[in-house]
Amino acid sequence: MRSRRTFLRIGAVGLVSFFAFIWNKLTLNHLEAVKQKSLTLPFNRNKEIAFSADYIIVTKNNTTTVYSAHCTHLGCKIDKLEGDHFVCPCHGSQYDLQGNVLKGPAYKNLKVVPSTISEDGNNITING
Amino acid sequence: MKRKKNKTTFGTYALAMFWLVLLSGVMLAIPFDAKDPYLSVSTIMVSNPWASFIRNYHYWSSQFFLILSLIHLYDHFHHKMKIGLKPGIAFRLSLSLLIIFLAMITGFLLKGDADSVQARQILQTLSERIPLIGESLAYSLLGSPESYQLIYVHHIATFTVFIAIAMVEHSRKFWPPVMDFVVSTLATFVISYFLSAPLHDNINPAVKGPWYFVGFQEILHWLQHPAWSLLLFLVVLILVYLSNSAAGKTMLISKRSLLLFTGLYAILTLIGLFFRGESWQLTRPWSQEYKTSVLHNFRTPRVDFAPDFTLNEALNSPVIQGRKESCLACHTETHGFTDSHSAEAIGCISCHGGNPFATDKNQSHNNMILIPGNLSTAKLSCGTTQCHPEIVERVPTGLMATLSGMISVDRFTFNEQDNPDLLTSIYELADSPADEHLRNLCVRCHLGNPKTELGPINEFSRGGGCLACHLNYSPEAEKALAANNGEILKSHPEISLKITNNHCFGCHSRSGRISTSYEGWHETTLLASEMPDSTNYRLIEDERVFVKQPADVHHELGLECIDCHHSYEVMGDGTHYAHQEDQQDVQCSDCHFNGEPRTITAENLDNESAKIAALRFGNIANKTFLITEKHNRALINTYIENDSVFFLTKNSGRKMTMKAPAKVCSRDNAHSSLACSSCHTSWAPTCIGCHNEYDANERGYNMIENREKPGSWVEYIGEYNAKLPTLGIRKTKEKTEVIPVLPGMIMTIDLHSYTGDKNDATIFHRLYAPAAPHTTSAKGRSCVSCHNSSLALGYGEGELKYVIENGKGKWKFKALYQSDPNDGLPADAWIDFLQTREGKVSTRSNVFPFSIDQQQRILTAGACLTCHKEDSKIMQQSLDDFDELISGRSSKCILPAWD
């Protein structure tokens, strides 16, 4: 009796784990399939700070750097410059224009995202 | 047993609420569109009051379900008795607590507003940080970033089914007692009618999670590694599990720990709800800031089953930035806007606030900003994140908003500070004789002074924030406003770049009187009734009488104020300056230059300049503009074409060629240290002999608070004259130059009249002020107007004569004005004849009268000019090397002797 129950229990746990395995696999595969490889946005060289989609495009001294607009603390989208720093609206983390953390709770700098500017200078392709 | 079954508990009420959630949810699913949640929810609120009511019902029944479930849980926990559920059911019950919160938060996400978008990000990041399965879990819970489909599925199916099963399993009940159901239904009806479910207007910058998670938001703020917060969830669930299933000490400790946690969490919730403002700043719930930035999002309108507009009107109104605004259902056909500010593009609430989701006038207009652009509310109108935040942040730092120079110099004159160049601000005025003087007489003209009445900017206008410059009424709009009979005005004034001289006039026709001088008008002391009937006189709206004088050459050519002054000068560049000449950027030599121009190409323009240039002149690609020497700012109405420099007037687009300065100006020898304006100023308004005293019986005015008050400083003015300016020296780190100066403050202040203190003597000052007269003439002033002029040298008006007696030359001066008893100098003088002064001599710490040596050199050349004409060969030669020339002079030439 006991061994039968144990067997069933193990079987049930095994089945659940198997389903979890399949779910994990299918989701990851799907994620890979729908993953956006790159994104092209209109680019304005005159704009020092541009908040576009999920990115912050900073152009200073003829150099353009693209940062992820998501706060490294919990991913909230930063869409505002306050004075000379970015402030996360959710928990108050602050970053300077180079994406460095000025004030926590975030402790990681904003992620730099590789990007290329089109030859005519009108578009920027972001490889997110 | 039967009695127990029908007993009313918080659990049975929770069950009733659950049914109400289900019922209202099913109904809400009809108008709700998961493809565009924000638009569909705002459309529901604006156009379908019944659906709006059901949305409220769904919201409130779910909030009560959560609260009642939690109380029900606590109801079991506060006894010391053991509950003793079997492990399986205890596990599922604990899990269902988590699921309830997930159902609630997915409901919160399905609003699709600004709060929801950020909450979704947080949920995603937290889930992703769970080891091994994080990424899959986050995606399975929330789906792809742009879609709400999976969230919707979980909300209506996954979580709801789980909660239902867990509920029925532990209570063995499907149906709540009838009475409980009826009471719950009615109570929720009432509350849903009066209080709507929140929806963020996506403009207000404060972001908050749902009330039950603001405590969690606080916890997350303190965690560098927020993933650890998930352990907190786990601990709470384990404690719930142990409270339900364990016995003895474990059970008791679990229950007490939960109680402690709940208490602490409640405190955090209160902090999060009432003490956090925009950008995570601490605030107080009774502060104005809290009202505007936090409470605003919760002031949702009551459901109105008979809206002020028809369904068709609501449906026909345009979608604005992804939402429906009810404003445009009533305010149809509103016109008069520029494209960028049209109602179709930015709606009404972007500027005017109010409630975009209400459907009756009163609620819609609640907290409305009737006149947007005032600096006190600019952050909520012109300066919202999507619009012009960087400008609205800058403007308050500029001099037109701070009045730093005016305040500092006034305090300096009242002997309240030793340095006239300190940085101050209008918002720092305190309780002192000078500050009261400022409040009574001077500070009405700051940009923060709010515009409180509808209508165009006129000669009476003072301040008004953004509108001070950017508001324009078309004749139609002005007529419509004048004929306002209570109906909705369809003709709206325009917010644009069309900034005319009239916008500047209200403030700048006072003090330095730049606006009037520029147009060739000099203020007199005549009363309106005394004004001669002649086109040489002009009466302005505030009854001051002006007389014709030569206008500025740029005015004659059709240039307006903004043709020279660019946006960073006028709206500030973010730096707090002490004086106008520091903030002011454009110099004559930026446009009138010899040699290579200083330029910038269109692609390197800053965004603001590029935007303004494109709005004014269309396509600017491949253009090259001039830039200023002082602050490196682009002059967007200039451009270089085929090696020529052209200039366009900003409002009318008239094209002109830029002239290089005359040869005489660009010689790098004599006169090289003269500012252009010291020669090219044709006249400047002067005022001498002004007395100030406080009169407690006078009807006064507080210009900061815009209210009348008893008692005021009174100014007894002296003489107003239009004259060539005096010259003085400005010494800066970069250069020493000769500039025009005016008798800015030759005045007495009866301090005793204000303080009542006998020991307070009457203050006397003889201060000259640097000037930018704005009366430029194409031709510079003559040599004798400086070298042989007592006025130019600072002695005041009078007879300055070169006398040769007994072979000895001597300059003599007889003043026109009587000596002032306070210092013995002529009333209009800056310095005594062939003397100089030190200490408090001007309204700046870097402006001085000529030294004795400098006066002697000027007058030596002046002595030559008494015989030699200024255009004579010899005088022209003297410009190259004066000293050498006079060393070889003839015996007839007698130079002045200095005693």
Concise synopsis of the structure shown:
The complex is a heterodimer of chains A (128) and B (899). Chain A has 128 residues and is α+β, with helices and mostly antiparallel strands.
| Biggest sheet record of chain A | 4 strands, antiparallel
Mean pLDDT of chain B: 89
Look at the structure and name the CATH superfamily of the domain at 9-296 in chain B: Cytochrome Bc1 Complex, Chain C
Strand content of chain A: 25-35%
Instruction: Indicate the radius of gyration of chain A in whole angstroms.
Output: 22 Å
Percent of residues in helices of chain B: 40-55%
User: How does the helix and strand content of chain B classify structurally?
Assistant: alpha+beta
Number of helices of chain B: 40
Distance between the ends of chain B: 124 Å
CATH topology tier name of the domain at 9-296 in chain B: Cytochrome Bc1 Complex, Chain C
The CATH superfamily of the largest domain in chain A is identified as Rieske [2Fe-2S] iron-sulphur domain
Overall pLDDT metric of chain A: 83
